[in-house]
Amino acid sequence: MKFLPFLRPLLEFSFAVLAIILGLRFITSFFSRESKVYRPMFLRQLYLLFWPLLCMGVGLPFLASFVYLGSISSAFELVLLLALASVVLGFSIPALVLHAQYYARNLRTTLVFDPKQNRLEVYEGRVRIPFRQADMVRVERVTCKSRRLFWSNYDYVRLYLRTGEVLTLTSILTNLEPLAEFLRNTNLQHRESWFCFA
Questions:
Q1: Are the CB atoms for 35 and 110 separated by under 8 Å?
Q2: How much is the CA Rg of the chain, to the nearest whole Å?
Q3: How far is 190 from 187, CA to CA, in rounded Å?
Q4: Where's the PH domain (predicted)?
Q5: Structural domain boundaries of the chain?
Q6: Positive or negative: CA dihedral 51, 34, 156, 102
Q7: H/E/C letters for each residue in the chain?
Q8: How far is CA 16 from CA 4, 20, 26, 81, in A?
Q9: Can you give the pLDDT at residue 105?
Q10: Res 197: pLDDT
Q11: Which contacts (CB < 8 Å, 24+ apart) does range 29-38 have?
């Protein structure tokens, strides 16, 4: 149990850094206008990962205390421990897996989207992928069937271009509802899934 005295200052430091970052972001949001350029940003990731990380942050130390202290003395406690572990991991792991997949897919992607100017551009790295709205053969929008799960905010839009190229824009970039509304006049197909693997 030597790691517990070290863990508290580390958690306090992490909380202080997070509070400073969020405070600065909140203050600077008053002086900035709404951006039309979307990348995988820290606050968007924090928004998506808040509940899964909170669930793991509350549940896993409790589970770890049982394992490290070896205080499981009856079958009833073991059943309760397994039930708690399945709830914590069952709600958190799918969201973390989806987040990792979306992050890997759109790590270098930049979306420039301004519906008022009729502007939709996608960049991979610094290279712009040239296409117009008329070049889209089909647009596929995939959302989660449930709105109450930790991973229900993870969805994506796939743009099928005439060149055969397929562009996948995930919710790690931004909320995709305005983009789907912008593309409503294309061949937009909506599909629901329990896990929106892109």
A1: no
A2: 21
A3: 10
A4: 37-182
A5: 110-189
A6: negative
A7: CCHHHHHHHHHHHHHHHHHHHHHHHHHHHCCCCCCCEECCCHHHHHHHHHHHHHHHHHHHHHHHHHHHHCCCCCHHHHHHHHHHHHHHHHHHHHHHHHHHHHHHHHCCEEEEEEHHHCEEEEEECCEEECCCHHHEEEEEEEEECCCCCCCCCCCEEEEEECCCCEEEEECCCCCCHHHHHHCCCCCEEEEEECCCCC
A8: 19, 6, 15, 31
A9: 92
A10: 73
A11: 36/112, 36/113, 36/114, 36/119, 37/110, 37/111, 37/112, 38/110, 38/111, 38/112, 38/113, 38/173, 38/174
- What would the two tokens of residue 128 be? 């712009």
* pLDDT for res 58: 76
Please give the backbone phi and psi of residue 161, each rounded to the nearest 5 degrees, phi first.
-95, 160
Are the CB atoms for 129 and 122 separated by under 8 Å? yes
Residue 104: the pLDDT is 92
Query: Mean pLDDT in each 10-residue stretch from start to end of the chain (198 residues)?
Result: 61 79 72 73 86 81 68 73 81 88 92 89 90 89 83 89 92 91 88 78
pLDDT at position 44 is: 87
How many residues are there in the chain? 198
How much is the pLDDT for 35? 66
For residue 171, the tally of other CB atoms under 10 A from its CB is 24
